[in-house]
Amino acid sequence: MLYVLKRNNETQILTPRSNHSGSDNYHRVTLNFDGVLNHYYHSRILNSSGWNILWSQPDNICIKIDGDNGPGSCGYNNVCSLGSNNRPVCNCPKGYSLVDPNDAYGDCKPDFSISCDEVGRGSPDDLYSFITIRNTDWPKSDFQKISPSTEQDCQNACLNDCFCAVAIYRSSSCWKKKLPLSNGRIDTSLNGKAFIKLRKDGVLRPLSPPSPGFPIPESHQKQSWRILAILTSSLLGSSIMVNVFLIGVLCWGFFHIYKKKKVNVFRPTSHVTDTVCHSFTYKDLVVATKEFNEELGRGAFGIVYKGVMSIGSRNVVAIKKLDRVAHEAEKDFMTEVNVISQTHHKNLVRLIGYCNEGPHRLLVYEYMSNGTLASFIFGDLKPTWSQRTSIAMGIARGLAYLHEECSTQIIHCDIKPQNILLDDYHVARISDFGVSKLLMINQSRTDTNIRGTRGYVAPEWFRHSPVTVKVDVYSFGILLLEIITCRKCLENEESYGLEAILVDWVVDCFQEGNLEALVRSDIEALNDKKQLERFVMVGIWCVQEDPLTRPTMRKVCQMLEGSVEVTIPPCSCNFSTTI
């Protein structure tokens, strides 16, 4: 029997009573890495049948782990089903493969591209098709519900929506899902169908061995090898004249396959792995960028270019050319590179390498395919509320890591939507440490010149006060309010009037109890007013004029997640005095 003895000496029994007594059996309890607690027994009699399961908790971990944050029992885009001893088994659906082939419980990535820029490439029906699987769902990835609906209407709705990756049809209702898909599970009680959208012309990479419900097709390359094998067999059994002909076909086939496999990427002069911050020559980066001919963006200290080189598992990189490096910054360049290269967090853009050759200072970063947060939230198509809240929490976690979890504390000093990038799954990644001020762990403040961007700069910059991590908290508060409203912090006064300064307008709406005005017709946000109010209050707390009043980023994370109560903030945040 497994029980818990409480402080008041009461006993809470966890396992059911059984006939397998301790005098006749050995007992052991194992808490597995996947979260399943198993109670086993083993007969003391020699030559017994081994360990047998007596009890496990939870009875279905695929369903029990059902949080709003995180991927669930398996990784993003993965599907959980129950295996032996109630342990989870994770499988990528057809058209998806593991990001890390050695981690079966990890994230899955699509083996094809999903894009909203398909002009001139054909209709959605020409580009995409569906596979159907039963009793499977990703319940935390909805962005639209259509009711009533038929199966065909459900498929058509997903087919014609470039954000839709999966549609779930059940009980005459349709739920459209977006990437990344979370909390995937197989549940026989669902009694519904999942329509997974696949690209017709996508070349699928070889996946793991197929499992029931998730058939995996052969890749085009594998099919090509099979054709060559058939040709070879024919060659051995044919006449001399036919053999000569087939030899020519065989040679052409090998040439054709290897020509298709050849990728036009630059390979650095020395071996490069995914885990090492590598030193590149300036010539390496000139070749990789084709003489810096494709610009991705401009930052405070230089221009970012797109590059192509073979680095571990990736080919495309972003190369930042620092063109205004001060003498003292140049002297500390390698120190900063060393500090930044030691940062590893899912919400930070990772530094892959650098160039420190003569007058040249360049940084090589992983490439983020979905661009900046600014273009995402200020564009014509408004992101969903769940996308925006997930992005906000990701940025908060990244800043908390920089402030409190690095061996060398890092103040970013220029948090703004242009410095937040989005990866393939729209996960927020903090970028641009070129304006960061690095602090040793035994320091708490630094005096420095004003850094940052108008509208996001904390008041203490202008007062020549000591600068602490709270300047990033202030900038995050401004950014959080922009994410909530999908509006810039400063707008044209002629067009927006009293609403031109975002913070002042948000505070007015909060005091008047008019939060609906902040999200206007965003039904998803209005359906969760508690979360909306919590996010608004956190934003107001972050932009307090007194840095000591602002919370730490660790506290901000807890407040956004709802694990810490958010009290009503004071309104001592006159934003107009700081711009």
Automatic annotation (TrEMBL):
SMART domains linked to this entry: S_TKc
What InterPro entries does its record include? G-type_lectin_kinases/EP1-like (IPR051343), Kinase-like_dom_sf (IPR011009), Prot_kinase_dom (IPR000719), Protein_kinase_ATP_BS (IPR017441), S_locus_glycoprot_dom (IPR000858), Ser/Thr_kinase_AS (IPR008271)
| Single GO BP term | recognition of pollen
A Pfam family found in this protein is S_locus_glycop
From the UniProt record, which GO molecular function terms apply? ATP binding; carbohydrate binding; protein serine/threonine kinase activity
Membrane topology (UniProt): Single-pass type I membrane protein
Q: Which UniProt keywords apply?
A: ATP-binding, Disulfide bond, EGF-like domain, Glycoprotein, Kinase, Lectin, Membrane, Nucleotide-binding, Receptor, Serine/threonine-protein kinase, Signal, Transferase, Transmembrane, Transmembrane helix
User: In which residues is ATP bound?
Assistant: K321
- Signal peptide, first to last residue: none
Q: Ranges for the Protein kinase domain?
A: 290-568
Enzyme Commission code: 2.7.11.1
Q: Which domain of life does the UniProt lineage start with?
A: Eukaryota
On whether Magnesium is a keyword of this UniProt record, the answer is no
Cellular compartments annotated: Membrane
User: Mind telling me which SUPFAM superfamilies this protein's record contains?
Assistant: Protein kinase-like (PK-like)
Transmembrane parts of this sequence: 227-255
Catalytic activity from the UniProt record = L-seryl-[protein] + ATP = O-phospho-L-seryl-[protein] + ADP + H(+); L-threonyl-[protein] + ATP = O-phospho-L-threonyl-[protein] + ADP + H(+)
- Any one annotated GO CC term: membrane
Q: Can you name this protein?
A: non-specific serine/threonine protein kinase
